[in-house]
Amino acid sequence: MALADREDALSDWLAGHGVAQDWVLGPELAAAGADVDWCERVAAVAGEAALAAGLEWVASTLETTGLLAEVKDSTRRISDLVAAVRSYSQLDRASMQRTDVAEGLESTLMTLAHRVPAGVTVVREYAADVPRIQALAGELNQLWTHLVDNALDAMDGAGTLRVRTGWERSAVVVEVGDTGAGMTEEVRAHAFDPFFTTKGVGEGTGLGLDISRRIVERHGGDIGIDPRPRETVLRVRLPSVGPAARARPAAGTAG
Ligand SMILES: Nc1ncnc2c1ncn2[C@@H]1O[C@H](COP(=O)(O)OP(=O)(O)OP(=O)(O)O)[C@@H](O)[C@H]1O
Ligand SMILES: [Mg+2]
């Protein structure tokens, strides 16, 4: 079926299932390779109640990760999407709240203040226009704690801890950088593996980054290591979902 026909069929299906953003989601899902059959399967696993939010979340995740660019109807893609909606619909929606990442970073830094030695300078670079994101705020604070913990460990008493927020194409970006020991290629390759640690017995369990990655993925984002000259940067991207962050025809702007 041609893309335009699939878009129309999807938009009709969405409208028929009470999904409000049919005119936006139809084309987005069509571009990702979804069709009406796929929507039927999603409706079966997610249930009508979670359908609209789940589809919106998937569409925005696809958009953020650039998957919309590679258009194909592969079975694998379809089952990934179904799995994504299923995990979304199982999230504890009640605790999802619009979250300011800089606020979370600040409260984390406050909690860890006693761990910051006198020789470590903390530099904050919070961009002004970062949108709030739909997130489990407590989990994000856990995530920041793991990253700051690692940075402090790596610096061994002296250096600069840099905490940065920014905003790029439908994702909020948070970076935690340190001027510590850095990672070898080998460590970088395994840093996210569960139980991988270079720390001594009783000092590290090797779960910090494994847990961090799970938290990030639960929010539909990604995390990576960005080694820069004299700085090790852990970079987190979290999709921003919600009306403020998504391109959408202006509604109700009369006049
Ligand atoms: N900022 C960093 N600079 C240098 N190495 C790092 C940094 N962050 C992580 N690593 C490396 O990655 C490994 C895995 O990190 P992870 O947080 O998963 O476990 P851990 O810190 O060793 O133990 P845990 O966090 O469970 O107490 C670390 O042991 C360390 O070698
Ligand atoms: Mg750690």
Could you explain the architecture of this structure?
This protein has 255 residues and is an alpha+beta fold. It has 2 domains: 3-90; 96-243, Histidine kinase-like ATPase, C-terminal domain (Heat Shock Protein 90, 2-Layer Sandwich), CATH 3.30.565. 45% of the residues lie in helices and 19% in strands. It has 8 helices and 7 strands. The chain has helices at 3-16, 22-31, 36-64, 75-90, 101-111, 137-155, 185-190, 208-218; strands at 96-99, 120-126, 133-136, 159-168, 171-178, 222-228, 231-239. Strand 6 (222-228) and strand 7 (231-239) form a beta hairpin. The protein is elongated and about 60 Å long. The two termini are 39 Å apart. The chain binds adenosine-5'-triphosphate and magnesium ion. Magnesium ion is lined by residues 146, 149-150, 204, 208.
Q: Could you describe the largest sheet, including whether it forms a barrel?
A: 5 strands, mixed
Question: CATH homologous superfamily of the largest domain - what is it?
Answer: Histidine kinase-like ATPase, C-terminal domain
Bound molecules: adenosine-5'-triphosphate, magnesium ion
**N- and C-termini, Cα separation:** 39 Å
Number of helices: 8
In terms of DSSP E residues, the strand content is 15-25%
Order the strands across the largest sheet as they lie in space: 2-4-5-7-6
The average pLDDT is: 80
- Number of E strands: 7
Structural class: alpha+beta
**CA-based gyration radius:** 21 Å
Q: How many separate domains make up the residues?
A: 2
What fold name stands as the CATH topology of the largest domain?
Heat Shock Protein 90
- Helicity range: 40-55%
Pick out the low-confidence regions: 68-75, 242-255
Using the alpha-carbon principal axes, give the shape: elongated
**Known CATH architecture of the largest domain:** 2-Layer Sandwich
Spell the H/E element sequence: HHHHEHEEHEEHHEE
Provide the CATH top-level class of the largest domain. Answer: Alpha Beta
